[in-house]
Amino acid sequence: MAGHTWRRLLADRTARAAAGVLGAAALAAVLAPWIAGYDPTAQPDPVALRLAAPSWQHPFGTDPFSRDVCSRVLHGARISLGVAAGAMLLSVTLGTTLGALAAVLGGWVDGVVSALVDVLIAMPRLLVVIALVATFGALSPWWLVVLIGGSGWLTTARIVRAEVRDHQQREYVTAARALGASRWRIVWRHLLPAVAPQVAVAAALALAAVIPLEAALSFVGLGIQPPLPSWGNILLDGSDYLTTAWWLVVFPMAAITLTVGSALVLADRLRVAIAGEGRPS
Amino acid sequence: MNPLLSVQDLHVDAPGEGRSILRGVHLTLDAGETVGVLGTSGSGKTTLALALLNLLPPALRARGRVEFEGHDLRTLNHAALCAVRGRRCAMVFQEPLTALNPRQRVGAQVAEVATAHGEHDAARAMRSAIDLLGRTGLTDPGERAQRFPHQLSGGERQRVLLAMALLLDPALLIADEPTSALDVTVQAQVLQLLREQQRARGMALLLVSHDLGVLATTCRRLLVLHGGRIVEDAPTPQLLAAPVHPHARALVDTVRPAERRA
Amino acid sequence: MTALLDIRDLVVDYGAGNAHPAAVDGVSLTIARGETLALVGESGSGKTSVGRAILRLVEPAAGTMRFDGTDISTLAGDALRRFRRRAQVVFQDPKASLDPRMRVGDIVREGIAIHRLASHAKGDLRVTHLLEEVGLSAADVGRFPHEFSGGERQRIAIARALAVEPEFLVLDEAVSALDVLVRRQVLELLARLQAARGLTYLFIAHDLAAVERIATRVAVMHAGRIVETAETATLFSAPASPEAQALLAAIPKIPW
Known about the structure:
With 262 residues, chain B is α/β, with parallel strands linked by helices. Chain B has helices at 45-52, 78-84, 96-99, 106-116, 122-135, 141-144, 154-166, 184-201, 212-216, 236-241, 246-253; strands spanning 5-14, 19-29, 34-38, 61-68, 71-72, 89-92, 172-176, 204-209, 221-226, 229-235.
């Protein structure tokens, strides 16, 4: 499938830059064990290397336990981006499936999904997740993925449902029905490719929402537990030293801002590419 | 006598797409004359209609001379151009729904044309609007004037647009596919109206269409536009009887038996 | 000649209730194998709904429809799918009726894939033949619909319909949006295909002049009903109903 939307997106320099930043962040996360200079939990010299400013040996400085902040940010990316990507995939898959089912099956399925979306969307997500974590105690990264992803599918479902319903009315779908195509073939071959760009927007937005959500949970101590580093708990560690050791806060914060910003820019450029549909590329 | 409209070597290019739409169009139109521009899609006929009144989208570049009542419209300043548009030379388009403001009652839209061109008495403007709507064959014009565009049929909307175009008694009416979006019986009525108004006012008519039947029954002279050039320019009977250019011949060949008057 | 299609008292109602007249309000017609029946009417007359009801794209509210002797108004599941191999459709605007994200080869192949009419390799060959049959080339399989002109796109839509080897085609204003010159070529193509494949056509149009050369018979529709059905020559020379007379009078008479 090579719709015009994707080609227009590829031709967009801003979109390519944003995708590049996200790709680089993902690569850094995957390669962290090999490219990080230090063990992120090692405390080589808690006295002499305590809160060392950035230097050639420690480009992002060290923390109160003499751990290398650069290595911790890189390893934190593994956790933070891993949780974010997992949660994003879960919420987008769930949202696309339920949204498409609601649109295609209609009837009571549509009624149930729509009602569920309407009710759940009114709930403050962060508070719900905090309440759950507070009830069941600290969570493993896997549970965090399930929790964040499982609560994030609503907007995707809503968008997919509306888009599928729109495309179902179009003549090329009628033509496929006239050819004898089954409902599911039409969904798979025509409708999902048609809504894919919108799903991609939802995915980018989900990513942009989930990264700070994980960080916020970890920052208040309900997310990823030390000594495992995540961008949220690195920030938590640094929050006491904001005035004395800026590097503890600035680097993880920059990592969050850069990835979230790139995801938002990508979502925006995608929207522009979709809006250009029908115009010559 | 000088012609009413004279177009000399008009070119329109789309620099962004690296192609030319019009490649040196020449045409003249005398006062009161009815001329049809026949062209298939992509021939440049809509671009020609827009270029005459300097209404081209910004992506297109025009050069050449368009002289109307002795003024070169291509170099006229904005205020003078506005005075020409609507007052001396009016235009109607194919799709009446998009040419009307969806949130304004049609009577007010017709009256606004008069107001915009110097009629200060609002009541008088509305009266002349309703009067004109009646003369374009709209039944119960007082009531129709109170409606919004979507509450009218396609044929009624086209009559409203025609009323707006005719309100200031223009010397030239340019109509671009004014009936192609309409049902055939409504098309016949609107064409009849167009012919009547043209004759009654003695205005010149430049009718642009892909439909030879529409043009041949309304215009005394036909131009065939092909590939951005006028490839044939002849009185209607002559063009029908003996088209010279192969493209003109092919178009004349598409006339269906039912369209030939017995 | 036996009737391929026989419709009695067809009603299509889009659920507006009794306050609104039905879109199709008791239509009966027959189409003989190999003929072209033109269904002509103005917008809103219900002609498109008749075509869609025959194809079971909208559900008829009442009436019987027999295709080659079998009742098609209640077909479901596999039986409906099998019927769709026999009756196909070409819509007015190929820009809307072709999936813009699919390559031409996949568009034409879709029917072959749905009905498993050929293996993959044989399917390729079949797609190539179909494209050539409608005047396109084998090299076009990898291109997208937007790379073609309006007439070429309509040829793609025709090839897609022919891929399942139907006996009957609903041509729903299939040439109305085309340029006069292109329209003529596509009409010639349709006539050639009809002769070569023994096709039966229901030719839906809003313009009476458009059907004179190709229709065996003409049915004129108005407000959900058929007001007149006649041999084409008869209808053009002596229209009986006021609606047919009005349509005929609306054709611009060129002073020759």
